Amino acid sequence: MWLLFLVLLTLILLYRWYRQSQILENLSDKYVFITGCDTGFGRQLAKQLDHKGMKILAACLTETGAKELKKETSSRLQTVILNVTDSQSVSAAAKWVADIVTDKGLWGLVNNAGILTPVTPNEWLKRDDFRRILDVNILGMIDVTINLLPLIRKSKGRIVNVSSIAGRLAFCSGGYSISKFGVEAFSDNLRRELKLFGVKVSIIAPDFFKTAILNATQIKEHVTNTWKKIPQKLKDAYGEQYYQNYCKFIDDICSRSSTKLTVVTDCMEHALTAVHPWTRYSAGPYAKFLYMPLSYLPTFVADYMLRS
Ligand SMILES: *[C@@H]1O[C@H](CO)[C@@H](O)[C@H](O)[C@H]1NC(C)=O
Ligand SMILES: *[C@@H]1O[C@H](CO)[C@@H](O)[C@H](O)[C@H]1NC(C)=O
Ligand SMILES: *[C@@H]1O[C@H](CO)[C@@H](O)[C@H](O)[C@H]1NC(C)=O
Ligand SMILES: *[C@@H]1O[C@H](CO)[C@@H](O)[C@H](O)[C@H]1NC(C)=O
User: What average pLDDT does the segment 273-280 reach?
Assistant: First the structure.
């Protein structure tokens, strides 16, 4: 009985391994558009896929970012300046992509541009603090996706979205988690909608990585500035100790961050180049073994674990 079970389990794992190891042919024919290539995951992924021979269309926010990336990549890679919160910039970039890929269509879209701050207790924030994050992380990504969908449908391609483990479990305050829950919702919806066209949508949920946005100094600067600005009444209500503890919480989260960005970009690469991409990738040990399992447990367990 046990033997049969073991044999069955081995067969299933072998099949799973075989299925996920099949990679597409002719990668060098394929165009991939990546947003947020100035730093972090976007930049690492652009270099990685360029190295594999794919044709990378890299969108950067700044000229400097674009120049630096070009220095480290082949002449196949082309860059464009894109500000995802500016709809004119988005449609101009979409037109630029359309002119390059012509009838072949676009194989991959990686929505990676994103911001994190301010991360402070919600009551200390204003409507505009939330608006800015939602603008980049959700509306920007939706705008880019909608503008490029015709080209992706043409090639029965792939959409890869960078969410976060904070998009499964809300453990940090401010707009970030809200935006990433939105990303998950949009991606799940899109995947079901686009099945009809043979387009596959994958979600990547990293935990903590040393990218430009996960910068303890910068996040704490935001917390401190906000703390200085809030009314005295609010300060009295929360107390100095709460503020100190909050800074400690930020340090704690940031100290878990890993420098191995390839853990995440390898998931992205699989989503773009595998014959059978997964719909969801949890990248990093905290995502896989802590936050993901916690998100399936009853809410009171998470409430206890994540209490402030
Ligand atoms: C790959 O490219 C070769 C030569 O261009 C072509 O003959 C072949 O059909 C392509 N394979 C696929 C899966 O598109
Ligand atoms: C991006 O566009 C928005 C809206 O047009 C603008 O407010 C913002 O300053 C732009 N950011 C950059 C870095 O150009
Ligand atoms: C796509 O990635 C952007 C960048 O992080 C991210 O802000 C947006 O949340 C992702 N969109 C989807 C559909 O996952
Ligand atoms: C973190 O942010 C601070 C302040 O903005 C900056 O001086 C520093 O260079 C940043 N560190 C990294 C690793 O990006």
Answer: 92
CB 202 within 8 A of CB 195: no
Residue nearest to atom 1 of ligand 2 (CA): 83
Whether 307 shows a pLDDT value over 80: the answer reads: no
Between CA 300 and CA 164 the distance in angstroms is 22
- CA atoms within a 13 Å half-sphere pointing along the CA-CB vector of 285: 4
> How much is the pLDDT for 308?
66
> Does 249 lie in the same domain as 186?
no
Q: Structural domain of residue 246, as residue ranges?
A: 215-256
Whether the predicted pLDDT of 162 surpasses 90: no
d(Cα 115, Cα 189) in Å, to the nearest integer?
Answer: 23
List pocket residues of ligand 2, CB cut-off 6 Å.
Answer: 61, 83, 85-86
Does a cis peptide bond (omega within 30 degrees of 0) precede residue 298?
no
Q: How many domains does the chain have?
A: 2
CA–CA separation, 159 vs 108, rounded Å? Answer: 6
* 294 assigned to some structural domain: no
Q: pLDDT band at residue 40, thresholds of 50, 70 and 90?
A: confident
> Which one of the ligands is nearest to 115 CA?
3
| Same domain membership, residue 204 and residue 238 | no
Is 215 near ligand 4, meaning CB less than 6 Å away?
Answer: yes
**Residue 188 in contact with residue 230, Cβ under 8 Å?**
no
Query: CB under 6 Å to ligand 1: residues?
Result: 25-26
Residues 65 and 118 in one domain: yes
Selected catalytic residue, list 31, 176, 243, 291: 176
Pocket of ligand 3 contains residue 164 by CB under 6 Å:
no
* Helices within the chain (DSSP H only): 2-21, 40-51, 63-71, 87-101, 127-134, 141-154, 175-194, 216-229, 232-238, 240-255, 262-273, 285-286, 292-296, 299-305
Whether 304 is a known active-site residue: answer no
> pLDDT digits over 256-270, tens only?
888 888 899 999 999
Considering the entire predicted model, what is its pTM?
0.86
Q: What distance in angstroms lies between residue 281's CA and the mean position of ligand 1's atoms?
A: 29
